[in-house]
Fold this sequence. Notes:
Layout: E1 2-10, H1 14-25, E2 30-33, E3 46-49, E4 52-55, H2 66-75, E5 80-84, E6 87-91, E7 94-98, H3 102-109, H4 111-126, H5 135-143, H6 145-151, H7 153-160, H8 169-175, H9 181-192, E8 212-216, H10 221-233, E9 237-239, E10 243-250, E11 255-261, E12 267-277, H11 281-287, H12 295-299, E13 303-314, E14 323-326, E15 335-338, H13 339-342, E16 352-361, H14 366-369, H15 372-386, E17 394-407, H16 413-427, E18 431-433, H17 436-439, H18 445-461, H19 475-478, H20 481-494
Parallel strand pairs: 1-2, 1-12, 2-9, 6-14, 12-18
Antiparallel strand pairs: 3-4, 5-8, 6-7, 10-11, 11-12, 13-16, 13-17, 14-15, 15-16
Amino acid sequence: MSYHTETLVIGAGPAGLTAGYLLSKQGRDVLVLERDPNQVGGISRTVAHNGYLFDIGGHRFFSKAKAVVDLWDEILPDDFIERPRLSRIYYKGKYYAYPLKAFEALRNLGLLQSTACVLSYLYARARPIAEPKSFHDWVRNQFGERLFSIFFKTYTEKVWGMSCDAISADWAAQRIKGLDLGAAIRDALVRSLGLRPKRRAGEPVIKTLIESFRYPRRGPGMMWEAAAARIADQGGRVLLDRGVDGLSFDAATGIWTVSVIRRDGSRETYTARNLISSAPVRDLVDAIKPRPLSTFNARALQYRDFLTVALIAKSRADFPDNWIYIHDPSVQVGRVQNFRSWSPEMVPEAGYTCLGLEYFCFEGDGLWTASDDDLVALAKAEIGKIGLIAPDEVVDACVVRQPKAYPVYDETYRDNVAAVRLELERDFPTLHLVGRNGMHKYNNQDHAMMTAMLTVENILAGHRRHDIWRVNEDAEYTEAGISGADEALASERLVPRKVA
Length: 500
């Protein structure tokens, strides 16, 4: 089988489907290929098990970019519900509200520990590390060594499987930028007094402090299934069970040839003028023939994998948290999702609860290769140790593995990404990288969508008028959306900015 399209999109996650939807809406010929044989959405899909629904990681629908919010409403106009945001930290047998409540934190930590935290913070601010290179350095400068060890170190090392000294400071600067201890303390004091925090005029919203968010009533998969259906309605195509394993570019004609393999071993070939990829950079570069010089750099990029053990229990115990961060090193679980608190429709039976225990691992390690029975046994033991439900209350369970869930920000990732980007943009002018894995950037769902929105603008314009690599770095490109990008573009015309 051979098929030609104007634009071929690799990956039917938020970035790929956003690109496919916007291009098909403009009447452009677009084809989206997805490796998964059963459903779209990527890490933002919703998994169903015996009538119970759960996320792969939990996805809040909150964005400071109006263009993204408008697109959510356009694709899924009638199925959002407003949900309270509540999460806690579990540390040494005690629970801490997150965002912190000052008096609760003081009571749990004790006066001596709390005083030591404040003194540690003051020391770090007085004598900061001049050029923070690691996650440890960056957080220590912002919060002090003591708070780093209590509220950052254990959980972060569970997520990434490496020392905080080996994780680039870029990750901290990107994920918790804008939240400083002063702001957190002010917010915590207000919350402890039972008041709503007030923002000063012009003060930005800090995502980690928001109190509510929107959520599709049956999980985020609703959004991406609706997007795929709309692409088809608009004349585009979304095909599942298509794993891309070969790419070649004819510079003379400007045409891409894409080789695809299916689960049954059959092969298909597609050609396209434009190629949008949300596939992991390492996989994409490996598929290009002849091999780019930057293949070595791409292969050096690392990914953290992820699995969820969903426990369904007949239990009267209930708690309002969306999720609980587990900072206790005595258990392997990193975070616990409470799916009923995301949406009551996720848990169809009264008197039952469904909790998702999240484990971070590397593909091929002991956790990843453990049998489902062993993982369920581990999850039941650990949920009992934490004290959320009793292991003997569990009546059903399901294990879902998610490879390449998180691009790793190690000490060399920045140089490796830069080398790959430089070569691909130079040699393949119609290749566009989008999304979290496509750009090896730990983007949120809305950021991934924005990279696709700006890429579509570039394709429609016929040149790279927007630098999508600035998404989640420059406010103009992230918070204000397309209009902000256009404003930034106007300033770039006055002060030329080189796109590497």
